[in-house]
Write a structure and sequence with these properties.
Layout (H helix, E strand, L loop, with lengths): L7 E8 L2 E12 L2 E2 L6 E2 L5 H13 L26 H5 L12 H6 L18 H14 L3 H10 L13 H7 L7 E2 L6 E2 L6 H5 L8 E2 L1 H12 L3 E2 L2 E2 L3 H8 L16 E2 L4 E2 L22 E5 L3 E6 L4 E7 L5 H18 L4
Antiparallel strand pairs: 1-2, 1-14, 2-3, 4-7, 5-6, 8-9, 10-11, 11-12, 12-13, 13-14
């Protein structure tokens, strides 16, 4: 905060199944302090929840990871995309050109030039997870925001987490809804297009999750519990093992510019390639099995099975990718050291 990288922060940590604590500092929006119960945007950390929804369809026998996407969404087969599978979407190896959160746009899009699905990797922040959400919708019948609320948030006690906040609910939360700031300039400013009832009401399966870090932590505690939390099971142990396993190994991500390994919808610790954290990594001391997902220039959440550690962290300030990486990795490295896990 002294370096003006952010105006506030919120963090929740558990170790060996027990809550170590939650912390909140600074402000949530101008004139409003950050609280442990402040709802903050997750951005791409949302992807792990959408991935879990798709994996529930897998374990219920409704799809196979190597199903062609076009087998579930026939119109997706345009432009030589009939080779793209569900696994390719989850591992960012499908090769879709950049698209927004529109399923129609993703269906009409081509693959990148010369792309062979599964043989190359390029992180795509929106299109693939819009398509995954549409597969869930077609298999289950519920819209993704309703499905995730019923099948994940409510069973896990993530009572203040949403994939979309309708205007009435947004109004009821009032000042508990935080406003993300840009801190890339000389003065922190609220990002107006990401704030307000209309912005929070938009459903984006890749990035519209919102809730306190204490809620998001519960999702990763469930993963450490092999699919169960508080006596409630939402995923099978086999599904959790598959989610955190390396399905994409040793490929240079053409978006990030470095080698990053991927599980099913999550980033698996890739420290070993350069002896330092990859983009949206987990610090210098995380085990090789740590997995999770970050959110654009602001958040990170992950589970480390070898250390029985779960972490959810968000900074209220987007200072640019480089500055965010430097601060996030410093905090996570220090966290392991403070907990005696280094």
């Amino acid at each position: 905060m002294a370096a003006s990288l952010h105006v506030g922060a919120q963090m929740a940590v558990s170790l060996d199944g027990q809550l170590v604590g939650c912390a909140a500092v600074g402000i949530a929006r101008p004139g409003v302090g950050m609280g442990e119960d402040t709802l903050m945007p997750w951005f791409s950390a949302t992807k792990a929840l959408t991935a879990a929804a798709a994996l529930q369809q897998w374990e219920r026998g409704r799809l196979d990871l190597d199903d062609a996407v076009a087998g579930h969404i026939p119109e997706f087969a345009n432009h030589d995309k009939e080779r793209v599978t569900v696994r390719h979407l989850l591992t960012h190896s499908a090769g879709l050109v950049a698209t927004d959160d529109s399923v129609e746009e993703a269906c009409g899009a081509a693959l990148m030039d010369g792309w062979e699905p599964g043989r190359r990797a390029a992180y795509r922040p929106r299109g693939p997870f819009a398509v995954l959400a549409e597969i869930v919708h077609r298999l289950d019948g519920r819209r993704i925001e309703d499905y995730v609320r019923s099948e994940l948030f409510e069973p896990l006690g993530m009572t203040d987490s949403w994939l979309a906040l309708d205007p009435a609910r947004h109004g009821a939360y009032g000042e508990r809804v935080g406003a993300m700031h840009t801190t890339a300039g000389s003065t922190p400013e609220v990002i107006s297009e990401l704030d307000g009832a209309e912005a929070f009401a938009q459903v984006r399966p890749s990035m519209s999750g919102v809730g306190p870090m204490g809620d998001l932590l519960r999702f990763y505690q469930m993963l450490l519990g092999k699919g169960e939390l508080g006596g409630v099971r939402v995923l099978s142990p086999q599904t959790v093992e598959a989610m955190g396993a390396r399905h994409r190994v040793g490929l240079r991500d053409e978006t990030f510019g470095v080698k990053v390994d991927w599980g099913l919808g999550v980033i698996v610790n890739s420290w070993h390639y350069r002896q330092k954290p990859a983009p949206y990594g987990y610090g210098n001391h995380a085990s090789s099995r740590a997995f999770g997902h970050g959110g654009s220039q602001s958040s990170i959440a992950f589970a480390d099975p070898e250390h029985s550690l779960a972490v959810a962290l968000v900074f209220n300030g987007m200072p640019g990718e480089g500055a965010n990486h430097k601060r996030t990795q410093a905090v996570l490295t220090a966290l392991y050291e403070d907990l005696g896990l280094a």
